[in-house]
Write a structure and sequence with these properties.
- The chain has 115 residues and is mainly β.
- Helices cover 0% and strands 54% of the residues.
- The strands form 2 sheets. Strands 2, 4, 5, 6, 9, 10 and 11 form a 7-stranded mixed sheet that branches.
- A hairpin with a 2-residue loop joins β9 and β10.
- The termini are far apart.
- The model has no long low-confidence stretch (mean pLDDT 97).
């Protein structure tokens, strides 16, 4: 059974940092593209960052230079390091695993940026 479990969300002040983790099981992790998405209240879910099976990365323009996605294939885990957080980064962050026509989602973790 495929499972993606996010952790690391919370409340942080503007300018602060958080690191999200997504631990996976039930998949051959190294084969999968891994992504982080977010959904703010009243808005559509949007792609934040993706990392390919080969380690290539891509980011939404809104987070370039502030967020870093990485993966540890030995731990079957993907990370999202978020620095210089802004109130507009407030959202539920979801982990996604994609390989060929198979996709899976985590349950999400809340990130709130507020003073």
């Amino acid at each position: 059974q495929v499972q993606l479990v996010e952790s690391g969300g919370g409340l942080v002040q503007p300018g602060g940092s958080l690191r999200l983790s997504c631990a996976t099981s039930g998949i051959i992790f190294s084969n999968y593209y891994m992504g982080w998405y977010r959904q703010a209240p009243g808005k559509q879910r949007e792609l934040v960052a993706v990392i390919t099976s080969g380690g290539g990365t891509n980011y939404a323009d809104s987070v370039k230079g502030r967020f870093t996605i990485s993966r540890d294939n030995a731990k079957n885990t993907v990370y999202l390091q978020m620095n210089s957080l802004k109130p507009e980064d407030t959202a539920v962050y979801y982990c996604n695993a994609y390989y060929r026509f198979s996709t899976a989602w985590g349950q999400g973790t809340q990130v709130t940026v507020s003073s």
